[in-house]
Amino acid sequence: MTQHADKKVDTYTHVLTVPNKNNRVTRTFKYLVGLVSGAWVVDIKWLTDSIEARKLLPEANYMVQGDTATESCRLDGPYTPGALFNGYRFYVWGELDLGPAYPNADALKLIRAAGGDIVAHCPAAQPREHGEPGPLVVAESCKPVIKAIRRPDHRRLFAIPVSRALPAILIDNKHLASARKAAEVLDSLIEATGGGLACRPKSWLLDCISANELV
């Protein structure tokens, strides 16, 4: 599978936006880059009020609460740049489509900006041990995305914890939308990796960045 060239993503010190009545904003690529860059994400009023005051006003008074996709998460200040995925490695299975405005390379840039490394070749891992399987605890953030997946061996991939010890596999949500498509993709993945690597959907990546933690 082709991995796209990964150039550094532009970073910012401030992201100016127009929040809704709940002081939250639409999740955009620039918003996510701002978070992993350690930028202040503030209401555009910060700029206009600073110009009027002829000095830079405290950003904390204008900071937005977060994005509309993760209402439970709340920003309490700029993130530490590159800290979120520091030491973690990811392999992208196919492509990660962030939307028509952003090519696959932007997803890779976003991972690197958050401190993660991109594995260029499909990693092999020891297959999970046979015998009586333990409790199947799917990562909470994955449950809505993998509703169509019924096979226990497929669902188990999303229960394996993401750790620094082994690369994690990132899969675009569209590959998991139907039981048939998901079965084809996950069978191929298990055959290639042995079934011992954590798998996460694209939405998990974006939710982690919004929350500044592995969710």
Automatic annotation (TrEMBL):
Domain BRCT: 1-64, 80-215
PROSITE patterns assigned: BRCT
InterPro entries the record matches: BRCA1-associated, BRCT_dom, BRCT_dom_sf
Domain of life: Eukaryota
GO molecular function, one term: ubiquitin-protein transferase activity
Chief localisation class: nucleus
Gene Ontology terms: biological process: double-strand break repair via homologous recombination; positive regulation of transcription by RNA polymerase II
Gene3D superfamilies given in the database record: BRCT domain
Protein keywords: DNA damage, DNA repair, Nucleus, Repeat
GO cellular component, one term: nucleus
Subcellular location(s) per record: Nucleus
Name the UniProt record assigns to this protein: BRCT domain-containing protein
Record organism: Linderina pennispora
Lineage: Eukaryota, Fungi, Fungi incertae sedis, Zoopagomycota, Kickxellomycotina
